[in-house]
Predict the structure.
Amino acid sequence: MRRKLAAGNWKMNGTLAELSELGALQGAAGGNAEVLICPPVTLVASAAANAGAIAIGGQDCHSAASGAHTGDVSAPMLRDAGATYVILGHSERRADHGESDALVAYKTQAAWAAGLTAIVCVGETLDERESGKTLDVVGRQLAASLPDDVTGANTVIAYEPVWAIGTGKVPTTNQIADVHGFMRSALIQRFGTDLADTIRLLYGGSVKASNATEIFAVADVDGALVGGASLKATDFAPIVDALNN
Ligand code: 13P
């Protein structure tokens, strides 16, 4: 049985004052679904110290554990600050920082070595969808971004169509079902049914309270990775509730 996961990605938003949102979210956390907030790295330690029933994660890590990499943060550092998860290969990092599938795989191994659960992101651009390449792209990203030693405990996959992120555009439930079903099959083919069945698949891209229930009813959707609607507890709590129901 896969435990549902409501994950919030605050991206480059939030100062110490916004950590009060974690307090306001406690009522929704602690139910059947796991609740995770990934604040900017400056807030990880403070968030983890006040997390209550909420898990805290990073938004990226370096593939090395330490060294001469100015401005970067390593997986052991995130773990030391109290994080238990890290988002890797988000499309904004793939686009803004040229992250390749191979780099994402190295980062995933670094996350595992530090005891973090990696949330590995995949998803097609609008051009790729319109030219019928969605499953090719997602299949390639999945194959090349995931190292061999995946387990349901060390890895979560997030399907985030790039064109749905921050746009208010959401794929149809059939489109989500197609990609999630395809990802489950690809995982079964590579890792076998028993292991593949333990890996949680999140949907991300313009998830809101108003569309969460419909999205969570789709087969093989085990939760959501939420951007904008995770910044305020009043927006995120109803999404968590929809997953708890
Ligand atoms: P939005 O929910 O703001 O569309 O962002 C989704 C996302 O990129 C989460 O990682």
